[in-house]
């Protein structure tokens, strides 16, 4: 408990002080600092994820990152189980 919190309290400012002030003040403080429930937590996580995706899109110029055609061709050939680079072992002279 900080003095700056106490002097901002409405009861304190209006001079309504008695022996129960500190306990009431602490109750108000605890009620004000309650942890968010699961729904609030989930909403915050969803909002953070949406914000993150928006930032990534903005950083990429609003377009998904373009892969090199060369790289994509190589990956496709590996997935297809074929080798695109067939070497001709015959030497032409």
In short:
This protein has 93 residues and is mostly helical. 61% of the residues lie in helices and 0% in strands.
Report helical residue fraction: 55-70%
Order of helices and strands: HHHHH
Given as residue ranges, the uncertain stretches (5+ residues, pLDDT < 50) are none
Tell me the overall shape: rod-shaped
Summed over residues and divided by their number, the pLDDT gives a mean of 79
Rounded Rg: 33 Å
Strand content: under 5%
Structural class by secondary-structure content: mainly alpha
> Biggest β-sheet: count, sense, barrel?
none
Q: How far apart are the termini?
A: 92 Å
Quantity of strands, as a count: 0
Structural summary, described in words:
This protein has 93 residues and is mostly helical. Among the domains are: 3-32, no CATH class; 38-71. 61% of the residues lie in helices and 0% in strands. It has five helices and no strands. It has helices at 3-8, 10-14, 21-32, 38-59, 69-80. It is rod-shaped and about 100 Å long. The protein starts with a helix and ends in a 13-residue tail after the last helix. The relative contact order is 0.05. The mean pLDDT is 79.
Notable features of this structure?
mainly alpha
């Amino acid at each position: 408990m900080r003095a700056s919190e106490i002097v901002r309290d409405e009861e304190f400012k209006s001079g309504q002080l008695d022996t129960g002030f500190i306990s009431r003040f602490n109750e108000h403080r605890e009620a004000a600092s309650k942890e968010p429930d699961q729904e609030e937590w989930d909403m915050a996580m969803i909002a953070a994820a949406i914000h993150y995706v928006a930032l990534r899109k903005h950083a990429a110029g609003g377009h998904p990152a373009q892969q090199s055609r060369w790289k994509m061709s190589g990956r496709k050939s590996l997935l297809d189980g074929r080798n695109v680079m067939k070497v001709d072992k015959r030497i032409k002279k």
